Amino acid sequence: MARVMGYRGGYTPQDRRRIESEMFEGKLMGIIATTALELGVDIGSLDAVITVGFPYTIANLRQQSGRAGRRNKDSMSVLVGDCFPTDQYYMQNPDEIFTKPNGELQVDLQNMLVLEGHIQCAAYEMPIRPDEDAVYFGKNLPEIAEERLQKDELGFFHCHDRFRPVPSKFVAIRDTEEEHFAIVDISHGKNIILEELEASRAFFTLYDGGIFLHQGNTYLVKEFIPERKIAKVELVRVDWTTQQRDYTDIDPIETEAICRIPKSLSRAFYGTIKIQQNVYGYFKLDKKHRILDAVQVDNPPITLFSKGMWLDVPKQALDILQERRLNIAGAIHAAEHAVLSLMPNFVISIPGDVRTECKIGTKEFAKKESSRKRPARLTFYDAKGGASGSGISTKAFEFIDLLLKQAVRRVEACHCHEGCLECVTSEACKHANEVMSKAGSEVILKSLLNMEIDVDALPMGPEEMSPAGIETVVLAQPVLPRGGNRVRVVEINRTESGSEVVVKAEPDY
Ligand SMILES: [Zn+2]
Ligand SMILES: [Zn+2]
Prior knowledge:
By secondary structure, the protein is α/β, with parallel strands linked by helices.
């Protein structure tokens, strides 16, 4: 009998109850779990907890460690640091694991877009009285109520029609994903659900001919039916696994908010993002991750929606890149990574919470002219939270000027030549940082901030790793708001004494 089992939220309730009770009764020696085991699961008390990688917050770490410890007995808690900066920070400063206070605010009252969602929900449940309720929602509540809510004759404020009938749908709580895909085991005429996968993971994991792992067993994906949200799998004995090959187009389709970048003509945009994943094949890999075979598939593209922010690359930057023969896709990709890697400095998040469109060599270095032309745009979207997003990119949106400035400083100060993990490459890059132009990223970041660019000091391309060939990038066209909707305009005022973010009424766009 297996003495160690896997455990995640997507397992069927029966499987989870069975694993929990076997753990409780001592039949199992251990469980390898996702954060699904963090809260509310009764598995008795454990002797030891090993956390692999620093979790979301210090509070999560304490929660996880707290699963170990019987009443009067010793317990042990081990944190294994990952390669990410936060992990490494605690590896260098282990004392802070014990002394650092838990994060205080669950809702960031500084963030207008997040705050408004919560106020709309509250007003839906009980009318808001701005003066009395300001203790909960901050001193700007009277203005927000006047501008964003609906007032009745008695002076109470109610949820705006725009958020009805269910305002909570507009407010994402971290890690909640409504869409799930069922993995159905059809081996030997069976027809049972093995587990469920969140939509955001499903497409990286499920495709016809792929290998799906469940409790250490290999299952062949016989049929993936995205419309019905199921994948039929069959138990097979193979000693290889598969890795999907795909490229993803990430496009904003609706502008909801605009943020002017101080002292620049450029603006950041926030709104609905369409994520279209095109799977064109997969690799068969052996246990050492060596490629055994490359298989082509012909699947229709898969489309998901989320929320995110984007920045259109100014024409001036494109002209400079062309003049210096620097790879434009590489410059965009490098700039995206630089911004992405700094987001945790402004928003509580971990690598992977927000994603970007990673550029892929087979597209960008192709020798043939392609009809796939991508807009010159830096795009970021919430990887979690389904169609309403997790709220992380909303928050990053209000720090966009500081994020860009930090990114410029990072890239400028880094002594590497072609880009490294300290500046523009990322371990999370979907396409292994193949298409990169560090020099080009500096041009883009600076032009967004309206900083001076010393064109003569730039290297002359084509760059060795990312040669500029057939152009795959075109000037971005503006994305409109949905018919009838108006956009919010976010003004950032940063002064010596602090900063202020104001959401203006909705002028015509
Ligand atoms: Zn570097
Ligand atoms: Zn990338």
